[in-house]
C-alpha cells in the first residue's frame, strides 16, 4: 500500500508526458513561462540592483583599506549611458560622505574631437551628475594631530601618520611626471565640463568634543566644473568650480553628545541652532591650481627659459574662492586650500601657499 502511495505521489516521466498530452501541453508550458517571466521581472525590478550593490561593497572594501564604502543599490543602462545608485556612504577616521540617491549620465554618443581645447568652458557637457540628500561631515583631523604628537615627542595614539615618516627627505627620489602636452592624451579633452546638481545638501564641521557644530544647509546647488590655464607656467592647469546655491543657511548647532561646560551660549536659537548667515541665493566661484613639480634648475633660476623667474619671484600655486549673496559680497576668512595660506576678509581673495 505504501509503495502505491509513493508511486502516485511522484509520477514517472511517462505518466507526466501522458498528462501533458492529455491536458494540452502548450497551455501548461505557456503558464510556466509566464510565471517564470513574472518572477524574473520582479527580481530585476526590486532585487538585482541591491545584489549588485552588495557585491560591489564587498569587492571595494576588500581592496580599499583606508575606510568603509557602502553601496545600497547600483544599476546601469548602456544605451542611455546612465548609472544609478542609492544609499551610498564613505566613512573613515576623519570624515563621512553620505548620498541618499543619485545618478550620472555619460553621453557617450557625443562626437569626440581630440583637437578640442581642454580649457574651453563653453564646451559641451559630456558628464552630468545629479545627487539627492548629500551630507558631508568632518569630525576629525587625524593626520594633523599625528604630526603634532610627533613634533612634541608624544606617544603616537593615532593612525593617520606613521612615526618617522619624512616626506621632505623622499622628494629627491620622486620621478618627475607631468601631464602630457598632447591634448588627446588627457581626460580633460574627453570630459572638458562636468555639471553637478545637488538637491538638499548639508555640510557639518565638528564632533562631540566641541560644544557647537558648524552646519551649512542648502536646498539646491547647481555647479559646473571645468579647467583653464594655470596662473603660473610651472603648474599644470587650474580647477574651476562655479555655480549657485539656493536657500543657504549657516548655523551653530549644539553637539548632541557634548558633556562639557558651555561658557559662551549663543544669544538666540532659531530652530536647530544659532543662525550665522542666511540667504536665498548664493553665487560661488572656486579656483585652485594643480601644482607642478619645480626642478632644481628652475628654482635656482639657472634654466635657459627662466628669465622671468630671475627678474621676479616664482608664482606659487594659487587658490581661493569668491561668494556673493543677494548682490552683496560675503567675506571669506579661511586659510588657503594649498598648504600654508594667507587669510583675507574681502569678497574676492587670492590665497597662495608659502614658498
How do the helices and strands follow one another from N- to C-terminus? HHHHEEEEHHEEEEHHEEE
Strand content: 25-35%
- Mean pLDDT over the full residue set: 76
Taking the sheet with the most strands, its summary is:
11 strands, mixed
Gyration radius, to the nearest Å?
29 Å
Task: Explain this structure.
The chain is α+β, with helices and mostly antiparallel strands. The chain is built from eight helices and eleven strands. Keywords: Membrane, Transmembrane, Transmembrane helix. It holds the Pfam family BLTP1_N. This is Bridge-like lipid transfer protein family member 1 N-terminal domain-containing protein. One of its GO terms (biological process) is synaptic vesicle endocytosis.
How would you concisely characterize the structure shown here?
With 355 residues, the protein is an alpha+beta fold.
Key features?
355 residues; alpha+beta; 11-stranded mixed beta sheet; 22% helix; extended; disordered C terminus; BLTP1_N; BLTP1; transmembrane helix; Bridge-like lipid transfer protein family member 1 N-terminal domain-containing protein
Task: Give the topology, please.
Blueprint: H1 2-9, H2 13-22, H3 25-46, H4 48-63, E1 68-77, E2 82-91, E3 95-106, E4 127-138, H5 142-151, H6 187-190, E5 194-205, E6 212-228, E7 238-254, E8 274-289, H7 296-299, H8 307-311, E9 318-325, E10 328-329, E11 351-352
Parallel strand pairs: 4-5
Antiparallel strand pairs: 1-2, 2-3, 3-4, 5-6, 6-7, 7-8, 8-9, 9-10, 9-11
Region (Disordered): 157-180
Transmembrane segments: 27-46, 67-85
Protein name: Bridge-like lipid transfer protein family member 1 N-terminal domain-containing protein
Amino acid at each position: 500500500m505504501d509503495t502505491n502511495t509513493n508511486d502516485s505521489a511522484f509520477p514517472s516521466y511517462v505518466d507526466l508526458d501522458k498528462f501533458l498530452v492529455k491536458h494540452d501541453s502548450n497551455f501548461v508550458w505557456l503558464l510556466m513561462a509566464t510565471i517564470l517571466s513574472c518572477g524574473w521581472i520582479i527580481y530585476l525590478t526590486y532585487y538585482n540592483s541591491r545584489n549588485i550593490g552588495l557585491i560591489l561593497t564587498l569587492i571595494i572594501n576588500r581592496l580599499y583599506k583606508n575606510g568603509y564604502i557602502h553601496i545600497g543599490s547600483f544599476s546601469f543602462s548602456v544605451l542611455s549611458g546612465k548609472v544609478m545608485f542609492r544609499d551610498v556612504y564613505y566613512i573613515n577616521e576623519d570624515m563621512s560622505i553620505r548620498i541618499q540617491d543619485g545618478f550620472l549620465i555619460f553621453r557617450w554618443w557625443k562626437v569626440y574631437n581630440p583637437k578640442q581645447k581642454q580649457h574651453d568652458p563653453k564646451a559641451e557637457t559630456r558628464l552630468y551628475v545629479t545627487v539627492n540628500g548629500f551630507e558631508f561631515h568632518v569630525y576629525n583631523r587625524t593626520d594633523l594631530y599625528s604630526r603634532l604628537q610627533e613634533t612634541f615627542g608624544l606617544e603616537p595614539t593615532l593612525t593617520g601618520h606613521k612615526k618617522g615618516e619624512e616626506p621632505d627627505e623622499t622628494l629627491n627620489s620622486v620621478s618627475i611626471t607631468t601631464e602630457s602636452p598632447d591634448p588627446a592624451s588627457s581626460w580633460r579633452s574627453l570630459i572638458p565640463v562636468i555639471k553637478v546638481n545637488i538637491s538638499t545638501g548639508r555640510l557639518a564641521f565638528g564632533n562631540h568634543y566641541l560644544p557647537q557644530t558648524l552646519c551649512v544647509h542648502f536646498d539646491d546647488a547647481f555647479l559646473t566644473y571645468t579647467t583653464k590655464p594655470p596662473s603660473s607656467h610651472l603648474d599644470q592647469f587650474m580647477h574651476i568650480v562655479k555655480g549657485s546655491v539656493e536657500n543657504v543657511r549657516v548655523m551653530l548647532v549644539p553637539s548632541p553628545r557634548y558633556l562639557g561646560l558651555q561658557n559662551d551660549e549663543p544669544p538666540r536659537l532659531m530652530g536647530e541652532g544659532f543662525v550665522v548667515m542666511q540667504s536665498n541665493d548664493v553665487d560661488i566661484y572656486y579656483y585652485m591650481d594643480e601644482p607642478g613639480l619645480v626642478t632644481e634648475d628652475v628654482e635656482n633660476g639657472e634654466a635657459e627659459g627662466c628669465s622671468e623667474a630671475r627678474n621676479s619671484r616664482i608664482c606659487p600655486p594659487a587658490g581661493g574662492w569668491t561668494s556673493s549673496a543677494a548682490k552683496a559680497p560675503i567675506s571669506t576668512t579661511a586659510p588657503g586650500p594649498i598648504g600654508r595660506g594667507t587669510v583675507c576678509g574681502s569678497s574676492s581673495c587670492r590665497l597662495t601657499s608659502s614658498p
